[in-house]
Design goal:
single chain; Immunoglobulin-like; mainly beta; five-stranded mixed β-sheet; 51% strand
C-alpha cells in the first residue's frame, strides 16, 4: 500500500476542526485500497504530541479513503498558532510481517 499526496500545508483558524484525509493506493494497481490499519499523530507548534497514533476511520463507505477530525477541545481553548505537523502510518499486514509506511503532513493555524 502507498499513501500519496499527503504533504499539503493548509491554514486554519485557531478554533477550527482540522479534517485530515488520507487516500491509500495499491502501488501495483494504482487503485484505492484498504490497508490493515491506518493511524495518525498530530504535533503542535511547540513539538508536543497532541494525538499519538490514533486510528483513522473509513470515510463513509469509500475504499481507501480515511479521515480524522482533530479539534483541541472546548471552543474557549483555541489551538496554538503556528506550524502544526503530523504523520500518517499506513500499516499493511500484522506482527513481524507488517509493512509500515509513514507519511508526514503539516498545516498552519493562523
Amino acid at each position: 500500500m502507498a499513501l500519496e499526496n499527503v504533504i499539503k500545508i493548509t491554514q486554519f483558524i485557531d478554533k477550527a476542526t482540522v479534517w485530515i484525509l488520507a487516500f491509500i493506493y495499491d502501488p501495483a494497481t494504482g487503485e484505492l485500497d484498504d490497508p490493515t490499519a491506518i493511524k495518525v499523530t498530530v504535533i503542535d507548534p511547540d513539538g508536543t504530541t497532541q494525538v499519538d497514533a490514533a486510528a483513522m476511520t473509513k470515510y463513509e463507505t469509500e475504499t481507501g479513503i480515511y479521515e480524522y477530525k482533530y479539534h483541541k477541545g472546548a471552543t474557549s481553548d483555541p489551538m496554538d498558532k503556528g506550524q502544526w505537523r503530523g504523520r500518517v502510518d499506513v500499516i499493511d499486514g500484522a506482527g513481524a510481517d507488517a509493512v509500515i509506511s509513514p507519511k508526514p503532513f503539516a498545516f498552519t493555524v493562523g
